[in-house]
Amino acid sequence: SAVISQKPSRDICQRGTSLTIQCQVDSQVTMMFWYRQQPGQSLTLIATANQGSEATYESGFVIDKFPISRPNLTFSTLTVSNMSPEDSSIYLCSVAGRTNTGELFFGEGSRLTVL
Amino acid sequence: DAKTTQPPSMDCAEGRAANLPCNHSTISGNEYVYWYRQIHSQGPQYIIHGLKNNETNEMASLIITEDRKSSTLILPHATLRDTAVYYCVSINSGYALNFGKGTSLLVTP
Q1: What is the dihedral of CA B70, B85, B19, B61, to 10 degrees?
Q2: Which residue from A56, B49, B64, B71 could staple onto B34, CB 3.0 to 4.6 Å apart?
Q3: Cβ separation of A45 and B96 shorter than 8 Å?
Q4: Structure confidence at residue A98 (pLDDT)
Q5: B34 and A48: CB-CB below 8 Å?
Q6: How far is A62 from chain B (nearest CA, A)?
Q7: Which residue of A has its CA nearest to B47?
């Protein structure tokens, strides 16, 4: 298993500002994923952030809005840029297990509220 | 990537078996079926996965139909702590999971 820590756990932000979410894993992992969960909704994949390559974004998500860094095998950041109230969501970091069987481990999420 | 369909909500009495169905009629031959659950205000938690055969672990059993178009997650003795949203998910080519809307299971005393 993998233990994932996310910071901040929650924040209240002003419209137009940017916030960077950190994801720290207790072991080295190749594949890391960022998800968004809007209020009352399911999880939506934002991007895949594999170490050593540029992040791959899903349809509807762009690098200018959600820049991602992956400097090493245990850490990643997701920035939510120029925030609007529609960005109010829980953002979750997830990593694949060592066996690549599809078992993903999730952080507790970062709950952002944009005023 | 397979699309999954689940009932939006279900109730189950404490101590009884909870049977949660999932339709995945577009699943391809080598795609696994995964089940996760999300307890309120927590990140999703892996439960079980399978390809063709039925699977059982300490948390649940997974029954997959022979044609693989549907499956059922069974919690044999539901407890109040099993109240959660249960997701039947598929995996994409990049090993990320595609979450549908899930089933909100309410276990009642």
Answers
A1: 80
A2: B49
A3: yes
A4: 64
A5: no
A6: 18
A7: A103
